[in-house]
Amino acid sequence: MKRFATVALTAxxxxxxxxxxxxxxxxxxxxxxxxxxxxxxxxxxLLLTALARTLPKGEWxxxxxxxxxxxxxxxxxxxFLSAYRLPGGVAAVLGAxxxxxxxxxxxxxxxxxxxxxxxxxxxxxAFGVSMVVLxxxxxxxxxxxxxxxxxxxxxxxxxxxxxxxxxxxxxxPLAMTGWQLTAGGLFIIPVAALVEGAPPALDGxxxxxxxxxxLINTGIAYWLWFRGIGQLTATSVTLLGPLSxxxxxxxxxxxxxxxxxxxxxxxxxxxxxxxxAGQLAAARQPRPFSSTxxxxxxxxxxxxxxxxxx
Length: 310
Known about the structure:
By secondary structure, the protein is mainly α. It has 15 helices and 2 strands. Strand 1 and strand 2 (about 305-310) form a beta hairpin. It is globular, with a radius of gyration of 19 Å.
């Protein structure tokens, strides 16, 4: 029951991210994806860090910067570049392939040996998403495809390394989330200034949209995501990813008047079923020790928290 509650709370993160497209198109200034990335990450990161009242110490300054760049700073710009260079459906499918990166990296770095059922769940989930978002007119652009693949790899590496490094003793997921969002937002600022120039003027609608994205879509969502990584396997967390494009499709149908064809409905059922199957498969696998745990014999473990404390 505790694991089910953790999975359900973690799933709220990709479900929230599924609202990004609708909010961006309906409320935010057009053609400012990097500025939007800064507005999503930096204010939320500063707010969470202030609430946690904890700053990194020692090696956690550079570790937080690395994780922030992988999960936020590099991921956001590459994701936006892919979305601008490719039809939305192709970009979404590349994102849905992210769990496959995590499955491979988790096996190499964390010793999480994925079962055949888990791998099949990742593949079938990506296939179901493709049925929902791909159209006959979808084309390919080399730069967009490369950016999409690297963005998925960046987020996958960030997920695995977040699990690999854990958290400093006495530091909770709120502080860790704040550190990463702050580092990622600061990383995007010079890129946004170089590519997009000065910030746009913001009206009330834009402020509402950015407020939602900062607090709900980013601050709370990433806190739930990193909290889930601390309590579940990296593979289990990333298999929740297809919920994001599925949520986007539902919002497009319910709020934006976008029709859903029978093929898309079947794809949604397949992707959702694969997500559930992936969680069931992950729940049956024993939790392995990470390479860090194996190399440090003096580590004490809190068996009620599934988190290594150093």
